Target: DUF882 domain-containing protein
Amino acid sequence: MKRVHKRIFIILVAIVVTVASSIFLSSFQAGPVNEQVFPKTQQEIAPETETPQDGAVIDHPLPEDPILTNGPWASAHFLMDEYACDCAGYCDGWPADMDPELLEKIEALRCYFNRPIIITSGVRCERRNAEVGGIENSWHLSGHAADLYCPGVPCDEVAWVARELGLGVIEYPDQQFDHCEIWH
Model:
């Protein structure tokens, strides 16, 4: 009897994997979304921002630029470009390499919530770090830190999970993001 149950389970898992793979692959073949079907503008979609109450969640709008899926991947859900320095051209975007352990733990954070994690700052050049008020020896300068948030999830909850995953965390509740870092 156990063999029958085991075979049924294996067949069901194979069917689920096949269906999920088919859906995933067909989404890449579908091509661009027809704008006439979804006529809303970014302005209509973006929520209004306001000062949060204690424990409140600010639903940050997603980046205005279209989400790109080409380029080298840092992990299953993040492009390397999401971690690049966002200066006004002072550097080539990569004054330092990102720490692979940090990338792995941020991917684990994303998988825990099963929701997008938005990286607002990854590696920084010294000039950009000074512009944003970063400390002189910031972990951002060496690719060991990233600022992030998870839309719809309180930043203190994101911080708690990040700490459980072994990240150092500085919380910025007024701005609703967390600074996550790897200490080396």
Summary: Residues 71-181 form a domain with the Muramoyl-pentapeptide Carboxypeptidase; domain 2 fold (CATH 3.30.1380.10). Residues 27-49 have pLDDT under 50 and may be disordered. The first strand starts at residue 118 and ends at 121.
